[in-house]
Amino acid sequence: MQYVIRPQTEELHDYRGYAGKIISGIYKKGDKITVFPSGLKSTIKSVEIGGAHVDEAFAQQSVVIQLEDDIDVSRGDVIVKNDNQPKLSNELDVLLCLMDNKPLLPGNKYYMQLNSRVVRSVVREIEYKLNVNTLEKEYNPSTVGLNDIVKAKIKTASEIPYDSYTDLRTNGGAILIDETSNVTVGACMIQ
């Protein structure tokens, strides 16, 4: 979900549309859905593309979805069909490529962005560094610097809906953003 459309005009006083890009599957009127991370359930009332109602929409299309129920949906929430639920957690195992000159240390705090959702996060643990030449795992690395690839545990301030990167790249890849400079400092593949 990227944007909530609430025109509140006289002719559209009741309109509430949820705009975003479909990252997998096919959505159509009547589909039973769940909103994550809240877990609220509803049914799709209509699907629009370019202001026109359509019978169905599929992955990579930008759409506006209206729901049968007035429920709280915000930017960064994920609307999924009930038969295809993502994982939901605030503890993530990731493969992380550091793209910053400052070393990566346990306790470093960042914003994590996964699609439109941005949450505060902290690096809890660095399990190993991957030697890109030999593909050997170097456990308990003394330093992690620019372009190093590590397996890390990241804790987020709130639960986020995600899929494993190997299952669905668009909902399993995230970035880390420096809290002070807003510079992207890392790319993550959630496992």
For the structure shown, list the relevant keywords.
single chain, 191 residues, mainly beta, Elongation Factor Tu (Ef-tu), domain 3, 2 domains, 7-stranded antiparallel beta sheet, 6-stranded antiparallel barrel, elongated
Can you tell me about this structure?
- The strands form 3 sheets. Strands 1, 2, 4, 5, 6, 8 and 9 form a 7-stranded antiparallel β-sheet that branches.
- The radius of gyration is 19 Å and the shape is elongated.
- Helices cover 0% and strands 54% of the residues.
- Strand 5 (40-49) and strand 6 (52-53) form a beta hairpin.
- The protein folds into 2 domains: 3-81, Elongation Factor Tu (Ef-tu), domain 3 (Beta Barrel), CATH 2.40.30.10; 87-190, Translation factors (Elongation Factor Tu (Ef-tu), domain 3), CATH 2.40.30.
- It is mostly beta strands and 191 residues long.
Short description:
The protein has no helices and 16 strands. It is mostly beta strands and 191 residues long.
Major beta-sheet overview: 7 strands, antiparallel
Q: CATH superfamily name of the largest domain?
A: Translation factors
Shape: elongated
Helix count from the secondary structure assignment:
0
Oligomeric form: single chain
Distance between the termini: 23 Å
Q: Cα-atom Rg, whole angstroms?
A: 19 Å
